[in-house]
Each structure stands twice: as structure tokens, then as C-alpha cells.
Design a protein that fits this description.
Shape: globular
Helix content: 40-55%
Protein name: Histidine phosphatase family protein
Pfam family, one: His_Phos_1
InterPro entries: His_Pase_superF_clade-1, His_PPase_superfam, PGM_Phosphatase
Number of strands: 6
Distance between the termini: 43 Å
Strand order of the largest sheet: 3-2-4-1-5-6
Number of helices: 9
Structural class: alpha/beta
Length: about 230
């Protein structure tokens, strides 16, 4: 059986990414810069053989997936589906506020003086999820256990589905914190602050029910797409 490899893409840069506002279950479209970056990504990935493609149900992820598939040599032939389980974390009543405000209050809830102090310790995703849950006044944020189950089950089902159909490569468009969380679930040594860039590719393999991390935050496909674009104008 061929090994299954997930090419997990963080969606393109959005309006809220640009003005540094909290964007979990709330959604804003890709900016002009974001669209251009994903077009380059699509060109960089255009020759990779994908058996399937998936994205979260957020508009920014759908737009990213469709743009990548639109640039792919066989994009119209790749089965594409939407899975709400791989969407971003829900930040409840903190949604839409400034990033600095949310990441300013979460450390205080966890008894840290600053975000940097928090991130340089062994703070866990569970602690952060619990802090968000406690801070949310709307009652929308997920418990850590709910969050863990949906993210793990979502990615594992995507991988298992491909494995069941002979394996191969799968394009998956998800979100920064969700991808970082998955990496930590695979390997608890992976840091909470992953710093994943918009349009970056994180690769994980899946075989016989086990994930393995192959690469993180790879922007080489974007650079390759830029080169292909420049060459087409020469």
C-alpha cells in the first residue's frame, strides 16, 4: 500500500490577518496580496499528484483550496470536499478583537506577566484552550476535549480515507493554530508557537494508523510558483 502524505496548507492572507484581528470561526476574505500568494502556491504545486483535496468550511480556506486547484494541471479531476472539523479554533466572544488584546489577557489568566514569558515556558495547548474557554462570555468556545477530538478525528479520517483508496498525496487547507495543534498531537515536543506563514505547506505522512511529521512551514512551493510566473513572461 502506498504511503499517504498530507500537504497541509495554511490559508492565504486575509483582511483580519493583515490588521491583526482574532479570526477563528469568524471569517474574512483573502486580500489581493493573499490571493497572489496562493496563486503562486498553486503554480508551485501544479505537478504534484493529488488523490484528493479537502479544506475546512471557512470561506478563506475554501477560497484558498479552489485557487490552488485552479492552478493545478489536473485540478478539475481532483475530488474536493469540505470538512468543518479542520476549521480554526473558536475564540468565542474574543473573536474579531485585536490579537494583542487576546494574547495579552490569556497569559494573565495563566499567571504569566507577558505573552513572551508564557510562550517560552512549557505552556500547553490544553492550558490555552482552557483559558479561552474561561474568558469567553458568549459560551461559544470549545472545551479542550471537544477541540482535540474534532481536530484529530478530522485529519485522521482524511488520511485514512486516502489510505483506504490506495494512498497517495492529499491537499488539505486548514488554519494556523489548528495545524500547530495537530503537530503537537502527533509530537508533544512541537511548540505551541509554530509561526506558520500564510500559504505555507506542512507535510505529514500517515501509514497503518500513525502520523509522522515530514516538514513544517515550507514556503518553497510559493517561491517555485513565483519563478514559474516570471519565466512565463520572459
Amino acid at each position: 500500500m502506498t504511503e499517504t502524505t498530507l500537504y497541509i496548507v495554511r490559508h492565504g492572507k486575509t483582511m483580519f490577518n493583515t490588521i491583526e484581528r482574532v479570526q477563528g470561526w469568524c471569517d474574512t476574505p483573502l486580500t489581493r496580496e493573499g490571493k497572489e500568494g496562493i496563486r503562486h502556491l498553486g503554480r508551485g504545486l501544479r505537478e504534484i499528484e493529488f488523490a484528493f483535496a479537502h479544506s475546512s468550511d471557512s470561506g478563506r480556506a475554501i477560497e484558498t483550496a479552489r485557487t490552488v486547484l485552479g492552478e493545478h494541471l489536473k485540478g478539475k479531476e481532483i475530488p474536493y470536499s469540505i470538512d468543518p472539523r479542520i476549521r480554526e479554533w473558536c475564540f468565542g466572544s474574543l473573536e474579531g478583537g485585536y490579537d494583542k488584546e487576546m494574547w495579552g489577557v490569556i497569559p494573565r489568566v495563566l499567571n504569566f506577566k507577558t505573552p513572551d514569558e508564557m510562550f517560552t515556558t512549557d505552556v500547553t495547548f490544553e492550558q490555552i484552550a482552557n483559558a479561552v474557554y474561561d474568558l469567553d462570555t458568549a459560551g461559544w468556545a470549545e472545551t479542550y476535549q471537544t477541540l482535540r477530538e474534532r481536530v484529530w478525528n478530522g485529519f485522521e479520517d482524511i488520511a485514512h480515507h486516502c489510505e483506504k483508496h490506495g494512498g497517495g498525496n492529499v491537499l488539505v487547507v486548514s488554519h494556523g493554530l489548528t495545524i500547530a495543534f495537530l503537530l503537537n498531537l502527533i509530537d508533544e515536543k512541537q511548540p505551541v508557537r509554530a509561526g506558520l506563514k500564510n500559504g505555507s505547506v506542512t507535510k505529514v505522512s500517515y501509514q497503518d494508523g500513525k502520523f509522522a511529521i515530514l516538514g513544517i512551514n515550507d514556503v518553497s512551493y510559493i517561491e517555485k510558483g513565483k519563478e514559474l510566473t516570471r519565466d512565463s513572461f520572459l
